[in-house]
Amino acid sequence: MPEYKILIIEDSPTMRQLIAFALKRLHGVRIVEAHDGVDGLKKLSAEKFDLILTDINMPVMDGLKLVSLVRSDANYRTTPIVVITTEGAQEDRDRALSLGANDYITKPIQANKILDLARSLLMPA
Amino acid sequence: MATDDDKGVSYNAEEFLQLFKKGAEFTQDLLKENERLRFRILQVEDSLHFKGDDTIVTDENRKLVEKIEALEKEKTEILERILQIERENQDFAERYVEVEAENNNLANLYIASYQLHSTLDFREVLQIITEIIINLIGAEEFAIMLLDEKTNELNAVATEGVTREEIPSIKMGSGIIGSVAKTGDNFFVEEMAGYTRDFLNPMVCIPLKIKEHVIGVIVIYRLLIQKKTFAPVDYELFTLLAGHAATAIFSSKLYSESERKLSTIQGFIQMLTK
Question: Is A98 at the interface with chain B, CB within 8 A?
Answer without folding.
Answer: no
